[in-house]
Structures are given as C-alpha cells and as structure tokens.
Amino acid sequence: QVQLVESGGGLVQAGGSLKLSCAASGSFSWINAMGWYRHSPGKQRELVATITSGGSTNYADSVKGRFAISRDNAKNTVYLQMNSLKPEDTAVYSCSCNARTLSGLRDYWGQGTQVTVSS
Q1: Are 40 and 58 in contact (CB under 8 A)?
Q2: Dihedral sign for Cα atoms in the order 13, 19, 69, 3
Q3: pLDDT tens digit string along 36-49?
C-alpha cells in the first residue's frame, strides 16, 4: 500500500503564493507519475498538474504560467508551487500517484488539503 500526505494548504489573499507538498510512503517499489487535482463544491474534480518520473510535466490551461509542479524522487515527494493565486483557485487539492506494489500498478490518492484564496 501507498500513503500520501499533503501539506501546505491554507488561506491566502488573491495574488499571493502557496506551496503544497505531498509525501508518499509505504511498501512500493516504484512511483511513476505524480500529480495534483482539485475539487470545489459544485464542480467536477479537475486535473491541475502532473509530472512523470522523468520530469515531464502537464498543466491545466487555467494554471499554466502560474503554477509549477516538481518532484524529489529521492524523497518520494511532489510539490506544487502556486503563484498569482485567484479566488477561483479555491478548492481542496489532492495529490495522486501511480505506484507499483506487490499488488501491481495502480493509482493512490491523498486526503487533500484546503486552499482558500480571498479576494
């Protein structure tokens, strides 16, 4: 099994910055892609950004140029630097990873961390 623990959420004014972290732990042999998703009331869960084990990244159009995803493979940790935050970025941000365990390759999810951007 894989456990993901997010940190770094909070309340910030519009235009401000936050950095989220997500650390993976457990019995896995390899982590493939890692990513961040967000969910706000009344909206479907949205992909924010993903990063492969080789460092290739993908972003939602709504965050391109403002958010940056990175990872430290030695620490099994993925980060999301969020700049120029807008009220519409308010959501619960969850991290996900695709990892190989004795059970095979599958996706795992964290509990999420609240990000609130005030206008």
Answers
A1: no
A2: negative
A3: 999 998 999 999 99
